[in-house]
C-alpha cells in the first residue's frame, strides 16, 4: 500500500521543487534589494564640481550643475576680476531654444537689460554674465558654492589638484571648448 501523499519518489520531487522555489525566491529577493539599494545610492550621490571659466558657457554649466541637485560643492573660477568680467561690451544673441533652456534654469529675462527681436534676446555679454552670477550667488546660502574671480586655473590650486587626481568632476568652459 502507498504512503499518503505519494511514495518516496514523489516526496523527493516535492522536496526538489520546494528547494528550487525557495532558491529562486531568495535570488529574486537579493536582486530586488540590490537594485533598490543601488538606486537609492545613485539618487543620494553628490559630486564636487570645478568649472574653469565664468563666461556664458561656464556660468550656464554652473547653473545646470546647481539645479541638478547632485552637487555637493561647486567651485567656479575665472582669471578675470569681477569688473573685467562684467564690463564686456560684445553683444550676445540668444536663440529661442537657448531662451527656453535658460528660462527653465531660472534666468529672468524681464529683469535683464536687453531687447527682443523675433523671439531672440539680445544683450551685452557682461549683462548676461552678471545676471547668471547673481543667481549663483543667491544659491550660495543653500549650497556650497565658491566663486573665485581673479583666479587663474593652475595646478597650485587645491581644487585643480583634486580634479587632476580624479576626485572632482571638472568642466572647462574656455573659448573654443
Ligand atoms: C569682438 C567679439 C564680438 C562678439 N560678438 C558676438 C555676438 O554678436 N553675438 C554672440 O552671440 N557672440 C558674440 N561673440 C562671442 C561671445 O564672446 C562668445 O560666444 C562667448 O563669450 C563664449 O562664451 P564662453 O563662455 O565659451 O567663453 P568666454 O566668454 O571667452 O569665457 C571664458 C572665460 O574663461 C576665462 N579663462 C580663460 N582661461 C582661464 C584660466 N586658465 N583660468 C581661469 N579662467 C580662465 C576667461 O577669463 C573667460 O572669462 C563675440 C566675441 C568677440 C570677441
Automatic annotation (TrEMBL):
InterPro entries the record matches: FAD-bd (IPR002938), FAD/NAD-bd_sf (IPR036188)
FAD-binding domain span: 47-108
Keywords: Membrane, Transmembrane, Transmembrane helix
SUPFAM superfamilies: FAD/NAD(P)-binding domain
Domain of life: Eukaryota
Transmembrane is among the record's keywords: yes
Transmembrane segments annotated in the record for this chain: 15-33, 45-66
MF terms in GO: FAD binding
Pfam families from the UniProt entry: FAD_binding_3
Protein name from the UniProt record: Transmembrane protein 175
Amino acid at each position: 500500500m502507498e504512503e499518503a501523499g505519494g511514495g518516496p519518489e514523489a516526496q523527493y520531487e516535492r522536496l526538489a521543487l520546494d528547494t528550487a522555489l525557495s532558491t529562486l525566491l531568495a535570488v529574486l529577493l537579493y536582486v530586488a534589494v540590490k537594485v533598490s539599494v543601488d538606486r537609492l545610492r545613485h539618487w543620494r550621490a553628490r559630486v564636487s564640481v570645478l568649472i574653469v571659466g565664468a563666461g556664458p558657457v561656464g556660468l550656464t554649466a554652473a547653473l545646470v550643475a546647481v539645479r541638478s541637485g547632485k552637487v555637493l560643492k561647486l567651485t567656479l573660477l575665472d582669471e578675470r576680476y569681477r569688473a573685467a568680467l562684467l564690463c564686456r561690451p560684445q553683444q550676445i544673441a540668444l536663440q529661442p531654444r537657448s531662451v527656453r533652456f535658460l528660462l527653465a534654469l531660472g534666468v529672468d529675462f524681464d529683469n535683464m537689460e536687453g531687447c527682443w527681436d523675433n523671439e531672440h534676446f539680445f544683450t551685452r555679454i557682461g549683462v548676461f554674465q552678471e545676471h547668471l552670477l547673481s543667481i549663483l550667488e543667491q544659491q550660495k546660502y543653500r549650497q556650497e558654492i565658491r566663486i573665485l574671480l581673479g583666479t587663474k586655473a593652475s595646478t597650485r590650486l587645491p581644487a585643480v589638484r583634486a580634479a587632476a587626481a580624479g576626485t572632482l568632476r571638472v568642466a572647462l568652459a574656455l573659448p573654443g571648448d
